[in-house]
Amino acid sequence: MKNICVFCGxxxxxxxxxxxxxxxxxxxxxxxxxxxxxxxxxxxxxxxxAKSTLSGGSCVTGIMPxxxxxxxxxxxxxxxxxxxTMHQRKAIMFEISDAFIALPGGFGTFEEMLEIFTWLxxxxxxxxxxxxxxxGYYDELLKFFDKAVEMRFVxxxxxxxxxxxxxxxxxxxxFEKFKLVKVDKWIDR
Length: 189
Ligand code: AMP
Known about the structure:
Blueprint: E1 3-7, H1 16-31, E2 35-38, H2 44-55, E3 60-65, E4 79-83, H3 86-96, E5 99-102, H4 107-121, E6 129-132, H5 139-150, H6 156-160, E7 163-165, H7 168-177
Parallel strand pairs: 1-2, 1-5, 2-3, 3-4, 5-6, 6-7
Helix pairs in contact: 1-2
This protein binds adenosine monophosphate (AMP).
């Protein structure tokens, strides 16, 4: 693994534990000699993870659509890639990253992580992805994912492929052991 892509809130959220985890994750990324790939913003958890990764001496690549250029971008990025569209931004994030972690966030974060989960189940991606479930932030969503399995819209194997942890070190240990189980996407065909 070389680059870790982090999806997270452009807001800090109400619980200080979210910012603490963003800082810790940045420290963990640099302690492992990895680089960070993310949305390029200076705001919220995004700004925090970038700052702590840079403080540890690692490279940070921000990828931003041109609509945000010059408005919210982090000033100290190792590299800033400006794209025409949001779709191009996500495509580059996917190409240059070896694993994906979602921290707490809003619609932007949900959309990004769900796209990666979708690509995993159709075999378009075999890169590990996980959720850092800080203080139970994602508990209800994870419960809903169980319902989707129970209602036979998602395969249990595909849900199990998503790594969930509350600890920024353990999630990396699980990434290293990750092996994609290939099963057909469709259920009850
Ligand atoms: P949200 O969770 O709705 O705050 O959105 C955060 C996610 O959307 C991040 O993971 C980013 O990749 C993307 N995003 C939000 N703001 C920006 C921004 N200013 N530039 C690039 N991407 C952003």
